[in-house]
Amino acid sequence: EVQLLESGGGLVQPGGSLRLSCAGSGFSFNNFAVAWVRQAPGKGLEWVSTISGRVNDTYYADSVKGRFAVSRDNSKNMVHLEMNSLRVEDTAIYYCAKARVTATPPDSWGQGTLVTVSS
Amino acid sequence: EIVLTQSPGTLSLSPGERATLSCRASQRLDSSYLAWYQHKLGQPPKLLIYATSSRATGTPDRFSGSGSETDFTLTIASLEPEDFAVYYCQQYGRTFGQGTKVEVK
User: Fold this and answer.
1) Between chains, do B47 and A44 touch, taking CB under 8 Å as contact?
2) A87, A64 in Cβ contact below 8 A?
3) pLDDT tens readout for residues B55-94
4) CB pairs below 8 Å between A and B: how many?
5) Which of A32, A71, B33, B100 has the fewest CB atoms found within 10 Å of its own CB?
């Protein structure tokens, strides 16, 4: 069974940093891209970032470019999202999801982890 | 950057009725890269349709997708109680539309 499990969410002050992790199992992890998608309270879905399976190509939404960095460790079936210079508007549930390649829609999703940026 | 605009914002229908949701792209889109998701409160999004018209595994056949270039449609032939949710289109695995809420009339 395909599973994705996010961790690392929590409360952080504006300007602070947080590192989210996504653990994958039940599939050939290094053969799939992983995307991060978030949903702010009362808002719709927003794509954040995607990392390819093997060659580590990375892509970012303009709203997080230069502040967030995505990486992966295929030996541990893990993807990480390093979030710096956090803003109140980054408050959201963050989902990780697997996709066949970077330009295709994610087909399996984790349950999400809540990030709250507040003073 | 391609912008996706969904309409209507809210669709109020009764079970058994047909739902037609629209997704319009700001520029021509390769139909291979347009997808639809269903999202319910407290759950992760669920992929329904990919490549404009292909059903994802487990998607009931009352859901169908169509369209080309800049205009795409998700149709739910006859609404079941579990279909009331928010629906999003997405392009190239990246930007989403703002969503259409299908609610009980």
Assistant:
1) no
2) no
3) 999 999 999 999 999 999 999 999 999 999 999 999 998 9
4) 60
5) A71
Residue listed under structure tokens 């541990």 = A76
SS3 A101: coil
Instruction: Look up residue B46 and give its two tokens.
Output: 């669920």
Q: Which of B22, B37, B29 is nearest to B87 (CA)?
A: B37
CA-CA distance, A32 to A52, in Å (whole number)? 7
How far the first Cα of chain A sits from its last, in Å, is 40
Closest-CA distance of chain A to residue B14, Å: 24
Convert B88-104 into a string of H (helix), E (strand) and C (coil): EEEECCCCECCCEEEEE
Rounded Cα distance between A15 and B24, Å, is 36
What tokens does B28 get?
């021509």
Interchain contact, A106 vs B97, CB within 8 Å:
no
* pLDDT per position as a tens digit, A36-69: 999 999 999 999 999 999 888 999 999 999 999 9
